[in-house]
Structures are given as structure tokens and as C-alpha cells.
Amino acid sequence: MKKVLLLFILVSIATSAQKVDLSYYLPKGNYNSAIPTPKSVIGHEVGEWHITHDKLVEYMKALAASSDRISIENRGTTFEGRPLLLLTITSPKNHQNIENIRNQHIAGTNNSSVDVFNNPIVVYQGFSIHGNEPSGSNAALAVAYYLAASKSAEVKDLLDNTVILFDPSFNPDGLQRFAYWANTNKSKNINPDPNDREYTEIWPRGRTNHYQFDMNRDWLPVQLPESRARIASFHKWLPNILTDHHEMGSNSSFFFQPGIPSRTNPLTPQMNQDLTKEIATYHAKALDKIGSLYYSEESFDDFYYGKGSTFPDINGSIGILFEQGSSRGHAQETVNGILTFPFTIRNQFTAALSTLEAARKMRTKLLKYQQDFYKESRNTGSKKAIVFGDEKDAAKTYHLAEVLKRHQVKIHEVKSDFTQNGKTFKKGYSYIVPMNQKNQRLVKAMFDVRTTFKDSLFYDVSAWTFNLAFGVDYADNVSLSKAGGEITDLKMKTGSVSFRSDYGYLMPWNEYYTPKVLNAVLQKGIRAKVSMKNFKNGGNSYEYGTIFIPVQHQKLNAGDLYQFLEKLAKESHVSITGVSTGLNDGIDLGSNNFRALTKPKVAMLVGDGIAGNDSGEIWHLFDQRFDMHITRIDTRYFSRVDISKYTHIIIPSSSLEKSAVEKIKTWVRNGGVLVGYKNTARWLSSNKMISLQFDKTKIDTIKGVSFENRSLQSGAQYIGGAIFEAKIDRSHPINFGYKNDKIALFRNSTLFIKADKRSYNNPIQYTSSPLLSGYISKENAKVIKNTVPFKVQRMGRGRVVVFTDNTNFRAFWYGTNKLLMNAIFFGDKM
């Protein structure tokens, strides 16, 4: 009876706590009645329901229409077509002079003699980059209203001296997905029981964007439309502070930076952390005032520059992470009592205002810090350059240059072909980056190689070295005399077909977009073959994996085939060569060493039990990069699907139920190619679909570790994300299209597969000292050497292919995307 009564009281408290009005969040004071409240536009109080993105947009537009303190712009759309809004909030007087203010602000970063002390400070406030961490975007309603409507002298002074770039939703698609879930599962009598359906989203949850990317990892790679919009805004203004409002586990309180000091990237100036700590005193004071619990410097880090709270740190700004314990719905029982959604919103609102208060009080100090940051950057830049490129893959190289241009890094063409460190850098296939430029610190961060660390624990990856991720050749300490003109209008290489042939066409497999072309060819019903050996034709050398498209016996006549290929070549920036003879130096074009290719029909398992990020990255690769269909079959109904029509099935990291085993085995034996990633390898091995031997890390006896620090020993054994070198057999179909004998591979698993005794069964094998960049424990370093990250074995007429790690990581690992494409197009040749 007592338990029932207690539950009734808890539910009553939670229910009544939802009945809040705007005064719950706002400081006391006078407000302009001409400014619409959130409720007057969206139809409910802030925190009563989860704001949907369409209503959030509606309210922000209403504010901009009614307030001379706010202007609004749409910087583009998400994959689902939702607007990427940015509000500029400042005084009416500043609005009238906004472009001059921006120019003066930027001038202060370009010239240390510019007087910045009278400039407004620039603060970028962004909310809910993880869509199911919604208190941020819901707080944005109240923050924007407060800044538009408050008549206080403090707000007027703030707006006179501050330009606020206000991004109410970093992740519109994810926010909409989560709001739908929370609202459709809300009860009239709010139930705070964590077991209620409201608090357990269905796969893939609202954290990510449309293609299931964690966008708080994309600030540096800039591969997604949402990221590109905010990075353009960032570099346009170079804010002094950028805030990133998140949520964490429900039993937590409230976190603000700085994080753990030993986990700060060494490239970040100490003054950055000192200023972050000073700003933190404003958060503490504000949260003390409302009685909220909080902590700082005990978790999270400032290491990976691809996060919103860390990216500003390498750009002369102060990045600040806020993490609020999440109600994950409307109210939840926690160790701290009933955590209501309005309470989480109020904490975010309070932190947003404390940030602005810190900016107002520390304005000149922060402006001077940013000016000094860029002064030192210009003065310490080397009189040398870096160069990167791939003499056989212009597209992949272009996309790396594209990232640099998005970060306003100056790049130059190569004046003429040259060789350095044994690598050839060709004009049109390579780019030079002078290091005597404003953003040289950012360039260093992007190409940073680091293998020693103060700390062994990382919140995210420990390495992201861009030349390794893109798989391009690289050299530093290059003379500036090698640089040609600066590239102001970056363009991709033009594709073409050399001439119309009545015999056939050859397409080397090196270029990044050749899978896109080959897929279009095969889907059109045009026959194509792949070369299993090297050869020469017409004086040109062709390597393993070259695609041959004969003219005779095709469904298109010679003229139509040429026009079709010419269109594909131009669209995909690929060069295709017409040939007039089948007589080669080496295998001839009619040789059986040219193997016929079949049209792929690819499926992928998704849903419960499948890693959402991994599956989303594969979906994005197929759909956005190569225009290929991939059928996503949910694990809920996989047992009912006829899979016989699929040539390939991909299973991202997962551990499926036993019921799927026999169905998949039969399909593979009948000729299917199964591609498994990460934990799927263990599942396939345990169910006897592939024979693998795993090696285990042996941890020495632990001595001298206290109870308090016991978790650090085990935590240090994780590979959060590092880069390793492997040697490759380029004659094996999995490696077709690669020009070097070694490859850089991303790894964030501790899945170690022993090499086969037959060397030809190890087409990709880690070297004896494989670490290229990032952290690995000494125990794991002993085990990983000479293991293999890839295996393929026959099963009946089919093949089972496994990768220990993601070859499509976060969309910027261009260098290993072709491994998956090779498994798709040439898997049955392995």
C-alpha cells in the first residue's frame, strides 16, 4: 500500500510539474507585449509538449517579423528538406550596421594593429545537435523570446555590445523524429516510470540526422548539409564563443566545461582553457541561484576537433559544451528525484544566459584573445607548404581540397609535376597548402599525426589525419616554389570518353566514382568485364580491376553506347578510353582473365540489433555518392522476406538471432555474397559461416592501481578510433583500384583476426608496426601486428566477406570506400 501511495505522489508531482508557464524560465522583469510569446504561436507552453521543428521554425519567423532585434536567414535545407535557420540577435542600431560590424570583427583577426576593444563580441549559440537531446532546442524558444522582449537595462547593454548568432536546431531531422516519438507516447497523466514506452525510442532513434550520422562529429570533415551551413556561418563571423547544448544520462545533473584537463588537445592554447574556466564561474553562479546541481572538469574532453565544443578551440574561439541530465520524454524517476522536461529546459535556458553574461563582462578579454591567437598563428607559420594528391584519383583528392576550402584555407595548384619522398604529385591531381597563412593551426590539426598522449582515455577518436583518411599521398616541408596559382574557384576534373570506338572501352578502376559508372552500365543491361591481370593497350598501362566494355552484342548500338558512356563520364568525372584493338601487351581483351560482371542487387539489414551509425554511413555511400539502390530490410520482418533476388547482403555491426542463420546460410550457398562488419564477424564465425581465429589481448597483472582509478586500466584497452597501416596484395579483387602497396585503415574495435598460413588468403594484413596515428594500449599493440582486418571464404557457390572495422567511417574516409565497392562488384571473383 505504501508503494502504491508513493507512486501516486511521484506521478502527481511529475504531472503537476509539467503545468508551467513562461515565468518558470524567465527572470523577473518587464517584457514587450508586442513580442509574441511561444504559446501564442505554437499553441502550447514551452515544455508542455516537445517542440516539433516546423513549429520551432514558425515561432522563430514570428519573432523576426515582430522584433527589430532579430533578423533571420535560411542557409539551406537538410536531407529531408527542413530549413537550416540562423537568427542574428543584436540591438537595432547594430542591425543597421551589421556588415560593417562583421568586417571590423574579421579585420581584427587579420591584423593585430586593428583596435578591437570597441567591437561587439560575437557569440554563436547552437542547440540540440543530437535530436533526442531536445531540452536545448526547446530552451531556444524561451531564450529567443527573452532576448527579443526583455526591457531590462542588462539586456539592452548586452545587445548593444554583442552579436548573437542563434541556431535553434542544429539537427532538424533528428529533432522532428524524436518530438514525434515523445509526443505520440505522452500520457495525460505523465508516467515517470523509466520502463514506459515513451522513454525508449525505436531504432534508429532521434540522435542522428536523416542518414543516421552523429553530426557532432562532422565539424571538421564537413560532409553533411547541416554541417556545411553552420561551418560557413562560423567562418563568416569567427565567433568568440560557441555553445553546444546537449543532454546525457537521466541520473546525471548538469555539466559545463572545461572537461578533464589532461584530455585537452595539445594544439589548443592554455589560455583557451583558462578563459573557459573563467566563463564557467558564470554558469556556476547562475545555477546556484536556481538551486540546480552541476559539475565540471570530471568528464568529457577537448581532444577531437570535429565536435562543436572543440572545433572553436583551434579557430581562436572558446567552445563550450553543456550536458543536461535528460528526461528523454516528459518526466522520469532518477536518483535525483523526478526529472521533468521543463526542469531540463530551465537549466539550458540558464546556461544560455550565463554564457551571454560572461561574454558581456569578458568582452574585451575574449576579443583580445582571438586577435592574439591569429597574430601568433600568422607569426609561427612555416615558410614551407604541405602537398597532397593521388596521381590516379583526381576526385578523391578534390574532395579533400573541398574540405579545406570550406574552412577558408588557401590552397594552390601544383606548378608542375614533381616527386617528393618517393611520391609523385601531378598537376591537376594534387594541391599545395602554404603554411604561412592565417588558418595554419587548423591545417596542422587536420593533418596531425600523434601517437603519444598524456591520457589514455578518449571521449571520441584519437586520430583523424586527413591525408590518411582520404587515402592520398602526402608530404610536408615542401618548398613554396612548387606552388602554382592560388585556387579561388575549385572545380572537379572533367570526365570524358577519348573517342567513339567500334571495338570497346577501358575504364581504369582507380578513380573514386568508377563504381557509380559501372553500376549505371550494369543497370542499363550493358555487358562489362573486369581485368584480373595487368596489361597494356595502345601504349597505355592498365592495372588490376580495369573495366572493359565491349561494343559488339550490346543492347545499344555503337553510337548510342558512346553517347551513354560520354554522359556517364562527364557526370562522374571519370576518363574512359576507347580502344581500336583487342591485342594487348599481356592478356588480350578476349582473354578469360577478363571476368564477366553481373548486375548487383544489394540489401542491408537494419533495425534492432544493428549499429545505426554504421548502417547509415553505408546507406549514405550507396545513395548519395554512387547513386546505387540498397534495400534496407528491417530485422523485425527479415524472416518473412524472400532474399533470393538479392546478390549481396550487408550486415553492419550486429549480433543477430539464431533464427536468421539457416536462411542466410542457404542463400550464401546458392551464390549470394554476404558482407559483415565488426561484431558480425564474431556472429558469423560462431554460427560456422566463416572460419576465423581470434586473438585476445593479454593484460599483465595490475599493480599499483587504486579502487578509485580501477576503471582507467580497463578503459585504456579500448581503441576509440586510431589509424593503422596494412600491406595489400593488389592482385586480389578486394584491393582493385589502389595504386600503393600499403593502405591506411581506421579502427575502433578490438576484434583481432589471426592471419591465414597461406599468404594469398591475407590480401590485407597489418604490418609488424602498424600504428600510424592515434592511441593504442601497449597490450593491444602487441596483438594487432600482422593480424588481418579482412577475410573472405567460400560457402557453396557464394562468399562470406568480413571486415573488422568500418570502411565508411563518418563519410570522410574516402580512402577505404572502394573496399566495400570491390566486395560488391567483385565479391564472387574472390
Between the first and last Cα atoms, what is the distance in angstroms?
Answer: 68 Å
Q: Determine Rg (CA atoms, Å).
A: 28 Å
Strand order of the largest sheet: 1-2-4-3-5-7-6
Residue fraction in strands: 15-25%
The largest sheet, given as strand count, sense and whether it forms a barrel, is: 7 strands, mixed
How many helices? The count is 23
The total count of strands amounts to: 36
Proportion in helices = 25-40%
Mean residue pLDDT:
95
Task: List its traits.
830 residues; alpha+beta; six-stranded mixed sheet
Structure description:
The strands form nine sheets. The chain has a seven-stranded mixed sheet. The chain has a six-stranded mixed sheet with strand order 17-23-18-22-19-25, covered by helices on one side. A six-stranded mixed sheet has the order 27-26-28-29-36-35, with helices on both faces. The protein is α+β, with helices and mostly antiparallel strands and 830 residues long. The longest helix has 21 residues, at 270-290. It is globular, with a radius of gyration of 28 Å. The protein has 23 helices and 36 strands.
